[in-house]
Amino acid sequence: MRITLESPYPFGMWGMDIVGKLPRVMGQKEYLIVAVDYLTRQVKAEPQAKISEKEVIKFVWQNIICRFGIPRVLITDNGTQFQGGKLKSWLEEPKIKQLFMSVNYLQANGQPEVTNRIILQQLKTRLGEDKGNWVHELLGVLWAHHTTPKESTQETPFNLVYGTEVVLPADIGEETWRVKSYDSTRNLESRREDFDLVE
Question: Domain named Integrase catalytic: which ranges (predicted)?
Fold first, then answer.
């Protein structure tokens, strides 16, 4: 039996996982906390020197709540950093429901697991034989993820989050229609009309 998890709205359901131990680099960082929004496929990832409830709480606060609002559901595996009383009581206050999924059951918490594999593969590709400083390459890997269309949505996570495609370096070098036709006055007027329609 396959369970499909779907978020009813953007940033309402996040899957979260830990990657590591990775080669230790600057600041003794050897772990990676990864969170994935189930609807937009937006990824937040942060290198860590150690993993505990304290780091998980700080990550959720800074990378999810302060940027995207309070989610309804947080899906994690049964790792000790996700099972403690501090995290449980902290999640109860804003009424965030925590679901635990078995690390052996990928369909249930598949989004973070798949994303972790992609991040690790892209880091290995960028670093090659040199184990190097994976922390420096992480932002480039996340950029590539956010600007690449996903099979499940046929959209980029960037577009699903911000409602527009990102202007890529290639768009500036070989000016695309979008870059050539940019007019700040017309753009401002258009945005005002959009906001008037929202009200």
Answer: 6-165
